[in-house]
Structures are given as C-alpha cells and as structure tokens.
Amino acid sequence: MSLLTRLAPHLPYIRRYARALTGDQTSGDAYVRAALEALAAGERSLDASMTPRVALYHVFQAIWSSAGGRLETSPEERDEGAPGSPAERLMRITPRSRQAFLLTALEGFTPAEAGLVLGAEFSEIESLIAQAQRDIDADLATDVLIIEDEPVIAADIEALVRELGHSVLDIAATRGEAADAVARRAPGLVLADIQLGDGSSGIDAVKDILGQMDVPVIFITAFPERLLTGERPEPTFLITKPFQPETVKAAIGQALFFHPGRARKAA
After folding, report:
1. What value does the mean pLDDT take over residues 4-13?
2. How far apart are CA 70 and CA 78, in angstroms?
3. Same domain, 124 and 17
4. Is residue 256 part of a domain?
C-alpha cells in the first residue's frame, strides 16, 4: 500500500487541525504540505509503533516545531505583532497548550494519543489542556447566530453556546431567516449547518452575511471530507455531525480567538 493511500483518509482532518492551529487556511495547508513533502522525500517517516493517523499528526508536529510555528506564505499576509491581532493573541498562549487542547477537543484524540503526538506524559497533557482552556475562554463573550433547521440539534448548540458565556442572537432555520436575523442585529459569531430543511444552503446564507460584515463562521456538516479538499477556499473551522460538546466548545473558542475582526475591535 502506497504512502498516499495509507494517509488519504486522514488528510481532511490534519488540514482541519492545521487550520485551527494557525487560524488560517493558507498557512495551515502550508504546514500540511511541508509534512507530506518531508514524508515523500524520506526526510521524515511514520512511526510504525503508532497508528497511521497518530503517526501523521506526530510528523506534522515535528514540522511545526522545527519551523517555530512560523511557516507563512508571505510577509504581506501576516498580521504579526499588531495589538489584539490573532498572531499577538497567539503568542500569549503556550503553543503546546494550544496543540494539546486541539488534539483532544477538536480532533478527538485521547490524552494518551495526544501525548504520543506531542511526546508528552499524560499528566502534562492534562495540565496543558486546562491552561489552554483558561486562556482561550478569556474575554471571548459575543452574540451568536445559529443557522440550523433541526430543532433538537439547534437546542443542543444553543445550550453549549450559553454555557460558554455567549448569548444567542437568533436561531435561523433557512437562508431567509438568517438574513432577517442579521438585518436586526449583527452577530459576533455564526454557527451554520450546510444543508437546510427548505432546500436552501447554509453556505449561501453565510456568503450573504459575509458580504455585509466580517464575522467568524463555523460550519456544521456530516460530510467534512467534501469541504476539506484543499482545492478551493474552504472554512477554517468546521464541526462534524454528530458532534461532541467539547468539539463545539473548542471550535467556538478557536474561531473567536483567531478572527481578525476581533483584533480590530481590540486595537
């Protein structure tokens, strides 16, 4: 079995992790590409004692660490050092804490697996996760628009959003309802399903919103691999159905933490 065949099922998810870690599709994909190129060139190899997925993330972490967390596309694309910018906020959170949090809460690794990826003991992983949660939750409260046509799922998301200290601006079941909600009040975050019950698209609803304002968006879908191909502009933050509460919390924290619009408000 070829290397690409072995890793193909895991590529959409390593892209998701890389994008959440960097807060940017272009930068995140650059790290994934560098890891795959290193594997193809024989500069890195998959650890045979690990599962292919854990081994792939382990190689990715090695690339991230060797680049110092600064593998960028161009200086012009960086907002590095500006007060309140994602890069400036990022520097306030220890990289390993952020990685441990994302590996367990967003990617679904057990603490033991996260320890293999990061080369850390179980107790250190627990400490890193707790520290990251405290840092990410600080000063992130906002108004959330939920675009979801299934009442039970919408109620679950609403409860999680409120548990994190945010308020729910509205729950829209269609593209039209989303437009009406935004017309009444601008959200600070959008959580959007992709396929809505009346046949309208959550993607189109989000395009409408982003045409009017700059706001972080988290998409919800049962088929993430259809969106994470690396072939077109794609969502940085994405929740897979059926989702775990901790996954929703992690995505919300990361989306708010990294969004450039918050940097402008904080400046």
Report:
1. 89
2. 10
3. yes
4. no
Q: Report CA torsion sign: 61, 67, 69, 75.
A: negative
DSSP H helical ranges for the chain: 3-7, 11-22, 25-40, 52-66, 86-90, 95-101, 111-118, 122-137, 151-163, 175-184, 202-210, 245-258, 260-266
For residue 212, which phi and psi values (nearest 5 degrees)? -110, -25
Tokens standing for residue 112: 């033991």
Helix or strand holding residue 221 (H, E): strand 217-221
Q: In the structure, what pLDDT confidence band is assigned to residue 103 with cuts at 50, 70 and 90?
A: very high
- In terms of phi and psi (left: phi > 0; alpha: psi -120 to 50; beta: otherwise), the region of 165 is left
Secondary structure (3-state) at 239: strand
Torsion on CA atoms 153, 154, 156, 161, rounded to nearest 10 = 140
Range of the domain at 82: 3-137
pLDDT for 80 beyond 50: no
**Residue scoring higher pLDDT (263 or 124):** 124
Number of Cβ within 10 Å of residue 126's Cβ equals: 16
* Amino acid 117: pLDDT: 96
Residue 233 has pLDDT above 70, yes or no: no
Q: What total of structural domains would you count in the chain?
A: 2
d(CA 264, CA 36): 35
